[in-house]
Design a protein that fits this description.
Elements (H helix, E strand, L loop, with lengths): L23 H25 L5 H23 L10 H24 L2 H8 L2 H11 L7 H17 L12 H20 L5 H25 L15 H22 L4 H4 L6 H13 L5 H30 L1
Length: about 325
């Protein structure tokens, strides 16, 4: 895996700031709370998916993020927070998270929350594979084995007869791939932009990118992908998505300022029980036995990769 890339499976991840302190318990608590509330956003997106396309939901998610982040960014950073620096990387980062969010919300439209998130959780494993294949990072047999095991788990989740086997299952895999590249680009920005500016610019880039895609889809007459007038009763739902995304960002930022990413990465998997709970309470979805087995394999593989990266980082510091 590329050196220093945080293995954080959460669908929304901020730019890790430089460590400001050493409060592992506080960091873990904040990260746990952040990933626990994020599936609520997924549940709202799934509910809205019956009336709006995934591109529009994703665009509104970023617009609401801008609305809730802008005042804090201007207060903390000033007008320079509006200017993407470095421009190209910030725009690419926004496009990647925009694509990932759209694919993920698209998956939620057709699949239960827990299964969608489980497939998405191969993202940290993809970061390992991409780092080895494209970035020429050294990845040993044990981590490759973990990557292979994670994909076996994903295949168990989307197996024939599972009820989710089909083209729809590809959507969270595409989301995982987009997010893997998003993490790699995020690492390239480390130390070059403050978190508030980056989060604001991510929202701006994501909203503009998805807005253009949505207008193009509407112009081509692609059903379900163009703009649909928002019903008055749904504005609160979209606002809730923005609030959860912004609060989740903030708690992740605060968590990463208190503890290393390697310590917090495994906490991201606490999102899974929350996703199961939201899916059960909101939609009556309960994973079957084999789906649970697949989820356990994926999570175990991700945890092993995170642990192994932490061990290698410690060895490198001791040399």
């Amino acid at each position: 895996m590329a050196k220093g890339i945080p293995v954080n499976p959460a669908p929304v991840a901020p730019l890790p700031p430089k460590q400001a302190g050493d409060d592992a318990r506080g960091g873990i608590a904040l990260m746990a709370l952040a990933v626990f509330i994020l599936p609520v956003m997924d549940g709202i997106a799934k509910f809205l998916g019956t009336d709006y396309g995934p591109i529009q939901i994703g665009m509104m998610r970023f617009l609401m993020q801008i609305a809730f982040t802008l005042p804090f960014a201007l207060w903390m950073v000033g007008p320079r927070a509006l200017i993407p620096r470095p421009f190209a990387l910030q725009v690419v980062r926004g496009m990647l998270i925009g694509m990932g969010t759209t694919f993920f919300f698209g998956g939620l439209r057709f699949m239960p929350i827990a299964e969608t998130l489980a497939i998405f959780f191969v993202s940290p494993l993809l970061v390992t594979a991409i780092s080895a294949l494209l970035l020429r990072e050294r990845v040993g047999l044990r981590r490759w084995s973990a990557v292979a095991a994670g994909f076996v788990g994903a295949m168990i989740v989307i197996r024939p007869g599972s009820g989710i086997f089909g083209i729809a299952a590809i959507l969270p895999l595409c989301a995982a791939m987009s997010f893997a590249f998003y993490l790699i680009v995020t690492r390239q920005l480390a130390g070059r932009s403050d978190p508030w500016s980056t989060n604001l610019q991510t929202g701006m880039s994501g909203a503009v990118f998805l807005g253009i895609i949505m207008l193009a889809a509407g112009a081509m007459g692609l059903e379900g992908l163009g703009f649909v007038p928002i019903q008055s009763g749904h504005w609160l739902h979209f606002a809730a998505i923005g609030v959860i995304a912004t609060v989740g960002h903030l708690m992740m930022i605060l968590a990463l300022s208190r503890a290393p990413a390697s310590t917090l990465a495994p906490i991201g998997y606490m999102e899974m029980p929350s996703a199961v709970l939201v899916g059960w309470l909101g939609f009556g979805d309960v994973p079957d036995f084999w789906t649970v087995i697949g989820i356990v394999i994926i999570v175990s593989a991700g945890l092993y990769v995170s642990w192994r990266e932490n061990q290698l980082a410690r060895k490198a510091k001791q040399q």
